[in-house]
Design brief:
Layout (H helix, E strand, L loop, with lengths): L13 E4 L5 H14 L3 E4 L5 H9 L7 H13 L5 E3 L2 E2 L10 H13 L7 E2 L2 E2 L5 H14 L4 H41 L11 E5 L2 H4 L2 H13 L3 E4 L5 H7 L10 H13 L5 E7 L3 H13 L5 E6 L6 H18 L7
Parallel strand pairs: 1-2, 1-3, 3-5, 4-6, 7-8, 7-9, 9-10
Helix pairs in contact: 1-6, 2-3, 5-6, 8-12, 9-10
């Protein structure tokens, strides 16, 4: 049945997408979808100090660092597009919801930038675990943009395919890295001289909008890699597998991203030498799950890092260096338990 939605957004030709929050989870879908609808898409530039400072100035102190950076990205799009795409992802599924900031984002952006005439393009995804509901939300938005059903179906299929391809590529790359690590370790363990050093693998556990933001987390990744470790990203593990695995940790956790991160730890724990938990201050879901992870996960060393807008890099780098040194000392038999 054809949607009866009025095309009241048909004059939107240039769509701006902030490079923050759920962009790092659904970016390929969003970009491809709008382009297939015939819209020009502008994605804000990579995060930098100016973006964070601009967002911080527009936020209340209680907002997490990632939310502050997001508002900075929105600010950078003002005057460059006809509307800023800020979807509303609600939390109707008690086992696959999001932090409430994703539900409030459209209203937050509209009110924060009301004096600058920023137009917000949005859609309501009530339950992300039900593909039909997600599709319906985007179909209604496409109809408001004046797209026909035929054009919507083509754009939706292309967007979903782009997202699935991106996810499969990341999961496959991780599997290949794990395979190579296993091979290198076998060579090191089979060297009777002990001269071959066994490679260290670190699982970096953080929300995608932290883990893959060069400004927010790049220092941590660079420090780990500069010490010769191989960094694996928890959010790049097969999501269906990690979501299922998370129920071995808890039945009641309501946040889907945290579920996937925990499931990745449970899936890869025996294949890595250490875990680095990274959280943006003051993330509510992480404040609960990170402490639980530290208590629950046994047998794998964990470093817990909190980043905020005021943090310098020296302290973080020193903690990482100490953590890796301890892992190498342990690897060489430095710690012997009775």
């Amino acid at each position: 049945m054809a949607l009866k939605t009025q095309p009241d957004l048909a004059d939107i030709h240039v769509v701006g997408i902030p490079r923050g929050l759920l962009y790092h989870r659904y970016g390929p879908l969003w970009e491809t979808f709008f382009r297939e609808l015939g819209r020009e898409v502008i994605v804000s530039a990579e995060t930098d100090r100016a973006v964070v400072e601009e967002g911080t100035a527009r936020s209340v102190d209680e907002c997490c660092l990632a939310s502050k950076a997001y508002l900075g990205h929105v600010a950078s799009l003002v005057g460059r597009c006809d509307a800023v795409f800020v979807p509303c992802y609600a939390s109707c599924d008690p086992r696959a919801g999001f932090c409430t900031k994703f539900q409030a984002a459209p209203d937050l952006v509209a009110n924060t930038f009301r004096d600058q005439g920023v137009r917000v393009l949005s859609c309501l995804v009530e339950n992300v675990s039900k593909p039909k509901e997600v599709r319906r939300a985007f179909a209604e938005m496409a109809a408001r943009l004046g797209a026909s059903q035929v054009l919507f179906k083509r754009a939706w299929k292309a967007g979903v395919r782009a997202l699935e391809d991106a996810r499969r590529a990341k999961a496959a790359a991780q599997e290949e890295t794990l395979r190579l690590l296993a091979e290198y370790r076998a060579v090191a363990e089979g060297d009777p001289t002990g001269a071959t050093e066994r490679p260290l693998a670190i699982l970096l556990v953080a929300h995608p909008y932290i883990a893959h933001d060069e400004y927010l987390c790049g220092t941590i990744v660079e420090a780990l890699e500069s010490m010769g470790t191989t960094v694996l990203f928890a959010d790049e593990t097969n999501r269906a597998r990690t979501y299922k695995a998370s129920f071995g940790f808890t039945e009641t956790l309501p946040w889907v991203i945290n579920r996937e991160l925990i499931g990745s730890i449970l899936t890869l724990q025996d294949q890595v030498d250490g875990i680095v938990l990274v959280s943006a201050f003051p993330c509510g879901p992480d404040s609960m799950t990170d402490d639980t992870i530290m208590r629950y996960i046994q047998g794998t060393p964990i470093l817990n890092l909190m980043i905020d807008a005021q943090s310098g890099t020296a302290g973080v780098e020193t903690r990482i260096e100490s953590f890796v040194d301890i892992l190498r000392y342990h690897q060489r038999g430095g710690y012997v338990h009775g």
